[in-house]
Amino acid sequence: MGKILVGGEVCLKGEIPVQGSKNAALPIMAGAILHRGYTVLHNCPRISDVYNMEQMLKDFGAGTRWEGHTLILDCSQICGTAVEEGLCGRMRSSVMLMGSMLGRCGRVQIGYPGGCVIGKRPIDYHLKLFADMGAAIERKGRQLVLSCKELKGVRHRFPRPSVGATENGILAAVYAREPVILENCAREPEIRHLCAFLRCMGADIEGDGTGSICIAGNSRLHDGEYTIPADRIAAGTLVLSGAVTRGQVSLVGAPREELDELLKVYEKMGGQFSWNGGTLLTDSRRVRNNVGEVTTAVHPGFPTDLQSPLMAVCCTLEGVSRIRETIFEDRFRVAGQLSRMGARIRIMDNEAMVEGPVRLTGCAVRAQDLRGGAALVVAGLAARGQTVVECQEYIERGYESFYEEINLLGGRIVKIDSKT
Ligand code: EPZ
What we know:
The protein is α+β, with helices and mostly antiparallel strands and 420 residues long. 31% of the residues lie in helices and 25% in strands. It has helices at 22-32, 48-60, 85-88, 96-105, 124-132, 163-173, 189-200, 232-244, 260-268, 307-314, 334-340, 370-382, 393-396, 402-408; strands at 3-7, 13-17, 38-42, 63-67, 70-74, 107-111, 136-140, 143-147, 155-157, 180-183, 205-206, 213-215, 224-227, 248-252, 272-276, 279-283, 293-295, 319-324, 344-348, 351-356, 364-366, 386-390, 413-416. The strands form 6 sheets. Strands 21-22-1-23 form a 4-stranded mixed sheet. The longest helix is centred in the N-terminal third of the chain and has 13 residues, at 48-60. The N and C termini lie close together (11 Å). Bound molecules: ligand EPZ.
């Protein structure tokens, strides 16, 4: 595992573009399998999770080629149906291959998905839906074998909104015999992006962005091109990086409709912002106030993925900020690492009380998950002295050039390779 050295007490200033969205790209890549032909994805982030998904598609027999940030997938020849255990254990999104492979091949052999340890993260909603649609599910050692002759149309209600289960259901339904109606669906923007992609390939889907989605089934897909939208979480992390340094950061191509909740919280802390076309201009020179209470929630609520970076900023704000996590049971692990830097954080059940302002001090800390790792960088930018973030590979699962971007804005981050 490598590490990064984060120089502290910097003030970030300048303009940078926002990368393509990880959580939009991954299900869309899984969706490309449904089409017996070419899919061209522009603005695809070059991050390790995307490379892992690319490898899984290759293992099934897909051809893949990169041209800059354009990923060209040729899924005309899919011959395998088994996902290599090591690969699928590395990321949560491998679960999406259940829906797309059932739709395309009527069979998939796959292990339980891995991904960031932020809670139990079962896949019971996914499996229940596939069983309702007529798939047989068999346990084979540590693997699951899902198979069907054909998936049938159903009206299915999820016990609670799940981003992954909604996406998986949509993927599986594209080739179902009759229409599939999914209820109590997640409304996260990534669901809309997946549906927009599938529609541009020829699928007939309605209702995405609402709790009830209808997929017509029996689709005939054709070659298509799609541009992966900007990453709302990467954009939010950069806004919070500007906030912690009291800087002025502008984000070109920020996803305007997807940042509302973050920007409300940013204003509460004293941040000011405006839009110039597609560019978000933030001014954090007056950032000072605690954020009161922030509760993570399903979209359009405050995104759980920005909770850890927000916690890092709260350490530098006056008074007590309360953060309630309602999506995952174990997403406060970064608090322990922030405390090593001098943060005063008390955790009671699903609530974190962050007392500030404290003068954070750089020291050696360890990334334990993607967003928690990013939060340590955010904290390090404001800390006195140098912060050494170990296990930075977690950060690189989702952020394409976070360190370079921070450095372009005036930060001082150096990456030390694991080999050196
Ligand atoms: C997606 O995870 C994202 N991952 C996560 O991003 C994000 O934090 C999460 O949605 C919530 O927005 C990707 O898009 C690849 P869920 P997902 O199913 O689909 C429970 C990041 O940092 N649940 O909406 O796994 C589950 O345990 C990440 O980029 C079940 O109980 O999230 C959780 O408590 C990490 N059974 C809740 O639902 C199931 O079968 C919501 O999870 C499925 C989910």
